[in-house]
Amino acid sequence: MAKENNSRSEFTILYDQYVDKIYRFIYYKTHHKETAEDLTSVAFVKALNSFSSFDQNKGGFSAWIYKIARNTVIDFYRSKKTLINIDDVWDLSDNQDIEREVDASLKLAEVKKYLKKLSVEQRDVVILRVWEGLSYKEIAAVLGKSENGCKMMFFRTIKKLKEEMPLVLFLCFLLKSF
Amino acid sequence: MRKEIEQILSDIYQIDPALKEHESVLIEMIEKLLLAKPEVKVDEIFVSQLRQKLEAIEPAKNNFSLSFFTWNRAAYAFTALALIAVATVSLNYFFKQETEKLVLSSGVERVENNAFGEIAFSTDQENEESLGRGGGGMPLTANGEQSTGSYYPTPTDADTKAEMYVPSRINYNFVYNGEEFSFEKETMNVYRKSTGGAVPSQLAGLLSGVKLDVLDLGKLKNTEINSLQINENKDYGYTVYIEPKQGYVSISMNWEKWPQDVYQRQLTESERLSDQEAISMAKAFVKSYGINVSNYGEPEIVDYQNHYYISRDVASPLEEVVSTEPSLYIPDSASVVYPLLIDSQEVYDQSGRKTGINIDVSARYRKVTYASNITINSFQSSAYQIENDWEKIIDFAKKGGTNSYYQYEDPTETIEIELGDPFFGLVKTWQVSQDKYNGEELYIPSLIFPVLSDSSNGYFYQQSVTVPLVGMENYDRSYPDYPMPLLQGNAVEE
């Protein structure tokens, strides 16, 4: 059952523990410092307002706060571009007028063609697993999918990149695109 | 880094051991991926300022919950009177008190293994109409030329010319060419929805304060409310139905407050709702009415409905004249579903469609017209041994999974249905409680095989085939009865 007295001090401790991680995760999905800071703020305010209903028994704080952050980014992009499906910065084309750090933009247009073929969920699985080190159980909670489904998705994403992208190009992308 | 790579590889090999052959390439890819992790530095000033901002915020109060789950069990006798009482209490009075809002309870209570007894669910009746069972759904033309169905003249009297239409005898041959699914666990949780509901004492207090001309409700003792209907008395208002005992709420148009000429004009292409519009309207509605969606995934469009609408013109065997081309039909509404999550697992119906809160958005009014299946989300979970014999699972899937299809000995047509790689999900089902003789809702860990075959031929609409991993051996695979011929009045010239 939901913990009724999740205290402010508990939240502050968790904030200190997760603010860096959440900021990074949002930055990966926005490529823009100010936007990442704004959305990090929004995510933590949402979390604070819902903290009394946060239930530790239904999953850890980690998955919970990442899920809030992910939805915050999705809401942000969808509110900006309502006519097309955009869930993060990767879905945007180069000429779309939205904030993005120049040094974070992809320099290899050919590579981007492949990257854009991934769904936001596939990108998130890679980011959360490889860069953020979340367990599949946590990733499953963030994405609202089964643990095994996330493993399968990660595997398929790697396989898809491997099959569709020439290896040399893939390595160039990994080395130079960020 | 080596340890991280080994862990990632280990996960991948569990899914596909054959990938070990490509280990060197995989290691290189993952290594580079790890090295490519962007260096992101968080601004300490920002972190500090945000902390201060959060400390200054007064968190939203959730200190008053009217929980269905603790509803007082009592007599049924005063239900009607209670309904009158609640109808008398205006919506404003009911909801204007800021701290008093109706909130659905949620949570999962762990109970001992195999606590729900033997799982022995049967076929899902509620989905039958959309499944084209029994070989029905064959296009019928006036002269029968387009159909492979057969006509058998029947005795007629002077006034009635009737004939029997026998549907085509279609067998479905399910094919799976994928790889074997590997199981990590021997047991998985089965979930049972908690019912019984609860009424908060504050709501009872509201009722007891109402004094009708004919009755003082405060005199009633130990009351129970089985259902409530609350109308919004305003233009485009809604009617809210609440079944507290089952913890079920639905919201529909209050017909008296909506324009009545709803279905007179066919919609044009320009009026078609985009998916994005429908989802945005559903979200706005959810927010506006304070519907708790914290236990649900992101809303999505239920696209099978479009298939239904488009193909209905050609598929109905009751139509005398049927076009061979699907006519352009702009659906009057779009359906959005907020998929239910139990312990972070998505829930599906027995046809493999995501299930949860359903919201219909009207293209004509650009408003939500119906929201249903808003339920309590209290469950018990109990671990059960799962079936992990791949042969049995595939055999079950090849028979159509939990949706049975009649297998003709002399089919006129056999359609191959290709199944894709399965994934895990909970499948909602229903069984009669063995001790209480009540129905109970169960959520069974299952493998869901997506249907890869093109369904646009109008024969087969099922999007997935589901295979329960618990209770498969007890599944009631009684095939539907042989399809009954349909009477076609005046369909044949004498």
Descriptive key words:
heterodimer, A: 178 residues, mainly alpha, Rna Polymerase Sigma Factor, Chain: A, Arc Repressor Mutant, subunit A, 2 domains, 8 helices, globular, disordered N terminus, disordered C terminus, B: 494 residues, alpha+beta, 8-stranded mixed beta sheet, 7-stranded antiparallel beta sheet, 9 helices, 20% helix
Largest sheet of chain B: 8 strands, mixed
Tally of individual helices of chain B: 9
Low-confidence runs of chain A (pLDDT<50, min 5 residues)?
1-5, 94-111, 171-178
Decide which structural class fits the backbone of chain A: mainly alpha
Averaged pLDDT of chain B, please? 69
CATH-scheme architecture of the largest domain in chain A: Orthogonal Bundle
Per the principal axes of the C-alpha atoms, what is the gross shape of chain A? globular
Mean pLDDT of chain A: 71
Cα distance, first to last residue of chain A? 43 Å
Biggest pleated-sheet summary of chain A: none
Ends of chain B: how far apart?
A: 84 Å
Notes on the structure:
The complex is a heterodimer of chains A (178) and B (494). With 178 residues, chain A is an all-alpha fold. Chain A has helices at 8-30, 33-50, 61-80, 109-115, 120-131, 136-143, 147-164, 167-176. Chain A has two domains: 1-95, RNA polymerase sigma factor, region 2, helix turn helix motif (Rna Polymerase Sigma Factor, Chain: A, Orthogonal Bundle); 106-178, Orthogonal Bundle (Arc Repressor Mutant, subunit A), CATH 1.10.10.10. Chain B has helices at 2-15, 23-35, 44-56, 79-88, 91-95, 201-208, 275-288, 304-315, 390-398; strands at residues 106-110, 150-153, 162-166, 170-176, 187-193, 228-231, 238-243, 248-253, 300-301, 333-339, 341-342, 345-348, 356-362, 367-375, 377-385, 413-419, 423-432, 439-450, 464-468, 486-489. Chain B is built from nine helices and 20 strands. At the A-B interface, helix 1, helix 2, helix 3, helix 5 and helix 6 of A face helix 1, helix 2, helix 3, strand 1 and strand 17 of B.
